[in-house]
Amino acid sequence: MTRLFIPGPTDVHAVVLAAQNQPMIGHRGPDFEELFARLQPLLRRVFLTSSRVYISTSSGTGLQEAAVRNGVARKVLCCVNGSFSQRWYETAVANGKEAVRLDVEWGKAVKPELIDEVLKQGGFDAIALVHNETSTGVASPIKEIAALLHDRYPEVIILVDAVSSLGGAPLDFDGWGLDVLFTSSQKCLAMPPGLSFAAVSDRALAKARTVPARGLYFDFVDLEKYLLKNQTPSTPAISLLWALAAALDRIMAEGLEARFVRHAQLADRVRAWAQTKFELFAEARYRSQTVTCVRNTRAIDVPALNGYLQSKGLQISDGYGALKGQTFRIAHMGEIQLRDVEELLALIDEFIA
Ligand SMILES: Cc1ncc(COP(=O)(O)O)c(C=O)c1O
After folding, report:
1. DSSP code per residue over 7-40
2. Mutational test site, ligand 1, from 65, 91, 136, 163, max ligand atoms within 8 Å of CB
3. What is the reported pLDDT for 2?
């Protein structure tokens, strides 16, 4: 089996894979409702919320679209510091929303003072951010940004993409007062791709009820109606829900805090190595806990490195988009352990020696 140090899909434990292999059940019956009811409190623990967490049979992009369609009535500020945050802007425009971009140099975090400058202009009712910019390995300070918004712009709904960090880094939905926070199954939660999850605040749901043209598949109002019955509006990926139950059991057995600590240790190790052999792309203080973006200062042939790694059963990622070749990325999320990282770094050392 290849060990994946790519930022999704991540390796899935055999127990989680096997959990999918169960007879089908109807999604309008008591067996399904029991399964769904078991998942809700566990998901809420992972999202650090007492609010609802919707389950979507889609990748995270579906819930990003949902956040825009349900959460934006007038004008949204899209904070862009990499390829994935750019998708907020593209999604807003594709859904006919008025969107303003706040462009931040790639490799840098989005900071509260930059946001303040733009929101001052007025007219915004939502802001869209990526917590963990997977293309650059930057984690923006969502807690500080949310504090600014609550203080000065309380009417602005806060939409956060945590696709590559939730479950691997602490994101305190209730404590920080976020409105929509979503992730995908195939990253830090270490599940197969195909599901995504969104915590949605009461005020975001109340707002959704007033926003026209929310569409059908990702309508929060409809998702809520069914969630109250422990169901989903349309047929969900039932096999993946069994996998989710197993993945959440694994997360709870490890303990959320311990999981965050493990991810922090993995990040520390990879960063320390990268700083001696290469350089880090992300600015200090805002480095991701789940994916490290390494500046390719030795101009190594990244595909050749990956070919070598793959011959040993491991895989990393090239730089994303415009950063291809100039950077490479080592994801340390989900099931990855310190011994895996040590093995990977030793092999890269061998390659560059
Ligand atoms: C930060 C971020 N947002 C969004 C996405 C898209 O997620 P999905 O492929 O689950 O739709 C990704 C995928 O890598 C991502 O890293």
Report:
1. SSSPP--HHHHHHT-S----TTSHHHHHHHHHHH
2. 163
3. 72
62-115 tens-digit pLDDT: 999 999 999 999 999 999 999 999 999 999 999 999 999 999 999 999 999 999
| Maximum distance among all Cα pairs of the chain, rounded to whole angstroms | 61
Q: What is the pLDDT of residues 202-226, one digit of tens each?
A: 999 999 999 999 999 999 999 999 9
Pocket of ligand 1 (CB under 6 A): 7-8, 59-61, 84, 130, 134, 161, 163-164, 184
Kindly state the helix (H) or strand (E) to which residue 168 belongs, with its residue range. Answer: none
- Ordered domains of the chain (ranges, CATH): 3-8+256-352 (3.90.1150.10), 14-253 (3.40.640.10)
Q: State which of 79, 164, 186 you would mutate to test the pocket of ligand 1, scoring each by most atoms of that ligand within 8 A of its C-beta.
A: 164
Gap from CA of 23 to ligand 1 centroid (Å): 30
Residue type, 258: A
Mutation probe of ligand 1 site: the residue of 61, 88, 91, 323 with most atoms within 8 A of C-beta: 61
Q: How far is the CA of 266 from the centre of ligand 1 (A)?
A: 21
DSSP-assigned letters across all residues of 280-336 = ESSPTT-B-SSEEEEE-TT---HHHHHHHHHHTTEE-EEPPGGGBTTEEEEE--TT-
314-315 and 3-4 strand pairing = parallel
Establish how many alpha carbons lie within 13 A of residue 143's alpha carbon, considering only the half-sphere containing its beta carbon: 7
Q: What is the pLDDT of residues 156-213, one digit of tens each?
A: 999 999 999 999 999 999 999 999 999 999 999 999 999 999 999 999 999 999 999 9
Determine how many CB atoms are found less than 10 A away from the CB of residue 94. Answer: 12
